[in-house]
């Protein structure tokens, strides 16, 4: 009995201590409010960021937050103007809504020599969550170094570079958000580093390309990328899937694969020069997708090593339907483009729209296009509501 009583006492003590640890953890995570009207804990963002602890939540009310500070960033020639400098490892920042809580200067401002100003900077943390915010009018909207970032219901607006993220680890989400810029040749988002498993869902861009390098397991779902030089660029080992997306109105190309691989389904891809450009050992597979051609080609391969497009539309523009300036390391290769609709029932006409080893005897890639479909194939989107409402 004494032994049983002792064991029971120890068990109860362990439960009490565990509960106390949980309570202590809950108490340590604070919620801090920033309200311009003085009803919160602070009226400006940076003073609040100076006192938050890792794991806290910062609530920012409506208003234009144009107050800035200067910080030093390793490798930069001089101090950088910043409107929100996050210095803790883990933080959640929630605004009153992307139309209500706006961070950045009142007018567009950017210096490409000193890379300033930046709306928000976060370096060497573990997790940052952003919700209901607009980052506006800076050289960079978001400057993120390492860690996992989750962005929801945010607008990154009229920054020369919407986002630079040096990614490390697995995870991260950009959902229900907009990236817009009118600056020529600007990037909507540049993400590189290591790891992957990054999700883009219901993201729209207007004017800024999405550029991803070296990350695997990237997923684009229900996105609309419009305008700019490129829609999506994948490079240096990046691996991505694109599903239920539309990419159009880009001055050069919808998608460029540079030593990268991509699988596309139930999407619509076009570009003023090319719809998709497979470059330098890039690999492309696609099903149930509409590729619309540009001034040079619909599908262009410059030393791409593998292309397989099936049950899709390959629609000729002013240029070729397919142009292959390619080789494969093992010798002659076959690009499988069978069972597609080419907007023609004449096999000789389709053949004349394809530039491969048949037209160029020194070429090392042959496009296999037979059999082809003499009518439109099923290239409709999967159920996701009215897809057309995504188009502006």
Overview of this structure, please?
This protein is mainly β and 392 residues long. It has two domains: 29-168, Single-stranded right-handed beta-helix, Pectin lyase-like (Pectate Lyase C-like, 3 Solenoid); 214-392. The protein is 10% helix and 43% strand. The chain contains three helices and 37 strands. The chain has helices at 2-28, 45-49, 347-352, and strands at 31-34, 56-60, 63-65, 69-71, 80-82, 85-86, 90-94, 101-103, 118-123, 127-131, 134-136, 140-145, 148-152, 155-157, 161-167, 173-180, 187-193, 199-206, 209-213, 218-221, 224-226, 230-235, 239-243, 246-248, 253-258, 261-265, 268-270, 274-279, 283-287, 290-292, 297-302, 306-310, 313-315, 320-325, 333-336, 354-355, 365-368. The longest helix is centred in the first third of the chain and has 27 residues, at 2-28. It starts with a helix and ends in a 24-residue tail after the last strand. Residues 1-26 and 383-392 have low confidence and may be disordered.
Brief description of this entry?
The protein is mainly beta and 392 residues long.
What is the strand and helix layout of this fold?
Elements: H1 2-28, E1 31-34, H2 45-49, E2 56-60, E3 63-65, E4 69-71, E5 80-82, E6 85-86, E7 90-94, E8 101-103, E9 118-123, E10 127-131, E11 134-136, E12 140-145, E13 148-152, E14 155-157, E15 161-167, E16 173-180, E17 187-193, E18 199-206, E19 209-213, E20 218-221, E21 224-226, E22 230-235, E23 239-243, E24 246-248, E25 253-258, E26 261-265, E27 268-270, E28 274-279, E29 283-287, E30 290-292, E31 297-302, E32 306-310, E33 313-315, E34 320-325, E35 333-336, H3 347-352, E36 354-355, E37 365-368
Parallel strand pairs: 1-2, 2-7, 3-8, 6-9, 7-10, 8-11, 9-12, 10-13, 11-14, 12-15, 13-16, 14-16, 15-17, 16-18, 17-19, 18-20, 18-21, 19-22, 20-23, 21-24, 22-25, 23-26, 24-27, 25-28, 26-29, 27-30, 28-31, 29-32, 30-33, 31-34, 34-36, 35-37
Antiparallel strand pairs: 4-5
